[in-house]
Amino acid sequence: MIAGWVCAVCGRRIDIATPLPWRCPAATSDDPHHVLRLVERTVTGEATSAVIPPRTGAPTFRRYAERFAWRAFARANGMTPAACDALVPQIADDLVVTPLARSDRLSDECGVEVWVKDETGNLAGSHKARHLASILLHLRAAELLGLLGERPPLAIASCGNAALAAATLARRAAWPLDVYVPTWMDDAFGDRLDELGARIHRCERRSSDPPGDPAMLRFREARDAGAIPFTVQGPENALCLDAGRTIGWEIADQAAAAGVTFDRAVVQVGGGAMAACLGAGVGPATRLDAVQAEGAAPFVDAWDRIVSTDRPERYWSVIMRPWTDPHSLADGIVDDETYDWIALKDAMFASGGRPVAASEDEIAHAHRMATAAGYSASPTGSAGVAGVLALARAGALSDGERVVVVMSGVAR
Questions:
Q1: Which residues fall within 8 angstroms of residue 323, CB to CB, at 6 or more apart?
Q2: Which terminus of the chain faces fewer neighbouring Cβ atoms within 10 Å, N or C?
């Protein structure tokens, strides 16, 4: 069971019973670079998430119920197990265990054994709802426990899968949602968000804006004004890194059931939450390699500074520099910063992984390969395959390796 939170930067601790533990209390507008980590109780030297058995035959948020921070918060404040269980169907019962299978075609083309965790059939077509559902479940628990007054609006900066997942979940709870988007967002996508009841804010760059995404800047202004950060960036809301681990837990359980082990996971990285959570879920025995596009590679750029610096999290602004003009066919991973770089580097240090940049040709080729292999993934969703191609080009793969990739982000 989760015991609480600790800031990876300043060491501030927060008890699990604390409501709305989104950000480190020491974070301010002048000193925003803090991020909370989960603190787990241990059983015989192991984190409890590794030893609490899953419930069989259940949707994901029931299957791993006792491992979640949102549930530990509810239980610490007196909510019964039955009451916790009753919340899940309202929010997340259609988040189910997604397929994991060997792709013969991708294995033949990549020259290593490739297994695919296929998230394209998940809620809203990607993994994003995994991260967001735990935030909403925490909010509903706080509401029922009388620890939340009038509902603040939810807020997110996204014009892709995260926004769609956020709008879908917010509608289920009848919770108001503000979505901050760039000016170039596709109108048809905006129509879909409108249909789900989201309030859209197109964000132009202002002459007074610092470097970075204008939509993210406006989102942070809304957060500072009292909105709930309903987002997949751990520094903005630590709870997104709670249930995000389910993708790794599922992979570990499915691999064990199939009698296989994975040498390497190659995972696409924009903000970094999915890869960090997958690494935390599968554990350090599987090497985690992060793939970014050459046109948007802030984590790749930061890697040498990370590995050469003692406690690099103390030097956030020096280590993680905003990328100028991020662009790629894989437009879902063109974040100008890798927001969850601390959690990501922790998983990669533990497993011996490193980042790799895929060329635009490799991203386009990987998408064609994935489509031909029968996956309905966008170029972003198939970018893990592009990472395998980039590793092969660099001579970094060994004969006989078994590699897992994630297809996440359905083609639209």
A1: 296, 297, 298, 301, 335, 336, 337
A2: C
Cα atoms found within 13 Å of the Cα of residue 119, Cβ hemisphere only: 30
The more confident residue out of 54 and 277 is 277
- Residue 108 has a CB neighbour count (10 Å cut-off) of 11
Task: Give me 392's structure tokens.
Answer: 């092969």
Nearest of 53, 65, 56 to residue 91 by alpha carbon:
65
How far apart are the C-alpha atoms of 332 and 162, rounded to whole Å?
A: 9
Is residue 213 predicted with pLDDT exceeding 90? no
What residue spans of 92-197 are helical by DSSP H?
A: 104-110, 128-144, 161-172, 187-195
Give the global pTM: 0.95
Tokens of 231: 């987002």
Could you tell me how far CA 23 lies from the centroid of its own chain? 16
DSSP 255-289: HHHHT---SEEEEE-SSSHHHHHHHHHH-TTSEEE
Q: Provide the phi-psi class of 196: left if phi over 0, else alpha when psi is between -120 and 50, else beta.
A: alpha
- DSSP letter assigned to residue 17: T
| Token digits of residue 383 | 């970018």
- State how far the Cα of 407 lies from the Cα of 409, in Å rounded to an integer: 7
Task: Output the CA torsion sign for 276, 281, 285, 287.
Answer: negative
How far apart are the C-alpha atoms of 177 and 174, rounded to whole Å? Answer: 9
- Helix segments in 283-340, DSSP class H: 298-307, 316-319
Contact 221, 213 (CB under 8 A): no
Single out the residue of 163, 144, 143 nearest to residue 155, CA to CA: 163
- Collapse the DSSP code of 375 into the 3-class scheme (helix H, G, I; strand E, B; otherwise coil) and give the result: coil
What's the CA gap between 293 and 360, in Å, rounded? 7
| End-to-end alpha carbon distance in the chain | 39
Structure tokens at 81: 């197990």
In the three-class reduction of DSSP (H, G, I as helix; E, B as strand; rest coil), residue 222 is classed as helix
Rounded Cα distance between 341 and 54, Å, is 29
pLDDT (tens digit, 9 = 90+) per residue, 49-66?
666 888 887 899 999 999
- Using one digit for the tens of pLDDT, what is the confidence trace for 151-203? 999 999 998 899 999 999 999 999 999 999 988 888 888 999 999 999 999 99
